[in-house]
Design a protein that fits this description.
With 92 residues, the protein is of the alpha+beta class. It is built from two helices and three strands, in the order βββαα.
Length: 92
């Protein structure tokens, strides 16, 4: 749901809390970097959700899928025209 804690747009960014994949900006050492994947619902089956996230990540690495450039803007403050250009996550 837009406006709640979990992101609804399929984006990534450094330090942006409205992004689906957030790379914390306080860590500068590449060996220590991590990411946060934030969209799963709290009622999800964790075994299936983590397996699906891991499979998607491995698929992206194996097939060298380009994620595009990061979106460093606050999604809550984008206009509806700009927001329409971003892929939205939808419940099944």
């Amino acid at each position: 749901m837009p406006g709640f804690e979990a992101p609804v747009a399929g984006t990534y960014s450094v330090g942006n809390r409205t992004a689906c994949v957030r790379i914390p900006g306080y860590q500068r050492d590449p060996a220590m970097m991590r990411l946060e994947f934030r969209p799963p619902d709290g009622t999800m089956n964790p075994y299936l959700a983590y397996a699906a996230m891991l499979m998607a990540g491995i698929d992206g690495i194996k097939n060298r899928i380009d994620p595009g450039s990061p979106l460093d803007e606050n999604l809550d403050k984008l206009s509806s025209v700009d927001l329409a250009k971003i892929r939205q996550l939808r419940p099944l």
